[in-house]
Amino acid sequence: MSRLRIQGGKKLRGRLRVAGMKNAATPILAATLLTDEPSVLKNVPRIRDVERMLDILRSLGVRAEWAGDHDLKIEPKGADPAKLDRKAMRSMRSSVLFLGPMLARFREVELPEPGGCIIGNRPLDTHLVALTSLGAACERGKEGYRLSADKLVGRTVVLPEFSVTATENLMMAAALAEGRTTIKLAAAEPHVQDLGDFLNAMGARIQGHGTHLVTIDGVETLHGATHEIIPDQIEAGTFMVAAALTRGDLQIERIRPDHLDIVIQRLEAIGAGVEVGSDTVLVTAHGALKAFKFQSMPYPGLPTDLMAPFGVLATQCAGTSMIHEPMYEGRFGFVNELVKMGANAVVCDPHRVLISGPTPLYGQAIKSLDLRAGATLLLAGILADGETVLHEAEIIDRGYERIEERFASVGAVITREEES
Predict the structure, then answer these.
(1) What's the CATH code of the domain at 368?
(2) Exposed / middle / buried, residue 7 (Cβ in 10 Å: 0-12, 13-18, 19+)
(3) Residues 352 and 368 in one domain
(4) Of 143, 148, 214, 206, which is closest to residue 185 (Cα–Cα)?
């Protein structure tokens, strides 16, 4: 357990480089199991969720070694599903991404109910619909699920929702299925695109990834590949909000501007200055900020993982902002922490909150709650007058690499302390 002690009232100025994308790295790590040949992954973030995925791979007998600061070599030859560490699987939500590749390679997989952040009800129904559509049998027991299949056969699958991880599981399983699989209502997020690119580099035949209609022509075998993880869209958006929130001046480097179109558009509408380069964005905010509406939507809409950062930004905007989160019913816990700090906010129902501003924020002792809420409350602490103590800071480490050091490099005053 750790906490971050933040001395607030700081404007952030300077340059921040965006790390590799957490939500791209986790499915791609799982996908390395689809072959027994080694793969090399570059620009991998050194974060807790990646380390947990590596723990699961190593429990299977996979060799996974850091070949540089952000490069990984994965050697999956000899992987044995009987050795799977069920406790490690339970520790994180992303472990569900092993369903597709393990079913495709070993024809059988047992998955305990995955853990992770408590942000609402996230059943596995869509995953099970997808994989049983290819011919897998599913049994549910007291502790989880068992899927098995003599062979997987491609077919047209209409997903019940735009589920990112279900789309990814289906793409990975279908890559080694017999015949053609067509996914309708596929998720189109940048990390789904990146997974498709990695699978194609392994020899898969996937078209349409990045759209809501994806086709996969199954192949008999896949081979290892070298692949660079895309920059983290959510981290980039968080840094952009931090610049606007603190009336700062941040150049955010090594980004994909095409992954951030709607975020850039919304910040400009609120009143921030945004200058976009080929792989950089400069965000400034020196004038008044205007209230806004934020509704989480599937890509290319506003990402649900940026809902909370925009929520703290709303406290500094003139007027009343509406935050609408239709996907999850448990993501507004951070609002109560903001209210402790002085925010004027009302949670209308599990999916909507009204935030009026501008209001000053004051340092308090608060909790991280979940990954994105934790990063959001860190931003609130940087802005607030006085000292903020953010408990359970290790939750933020799941998705952000050395976050306090990087913010300190652009003017924040943050120290990390271990809690007994």
Answers:
(1) 3.65.10.10
(2) middle
(3) yes
(4) 214
Mark which of 228, 263, 279 sits at the end of a domain: 228
The tally of domains found in the chain comes to 2
Buried b (16+ CB within 10 A) or exposed e, 74-112: bbbeebebeebeeebbbbbbbbbbbbbbbbbbeebbbbb
DSSP code string of 331-396: --HHHHHHHHTT-EEEEEETTEEEEEE----B--EEE--SHHHHHHHHHHHHHSBSEEEEE-GGGG
pLDDT tens, 343-398?
999 999 999 999 999 999 999 999 999 999 999 999 999 999 999 999 999 999 99
As annotated, the active-site residues are 117
Out of 128-132, 279-283, 336-340, 351-355, least confident range: 128-132
Domain's final residue, options 170, 198, 228: 228
Q: Which domain holds residue 365?
A: 2-19+231-418
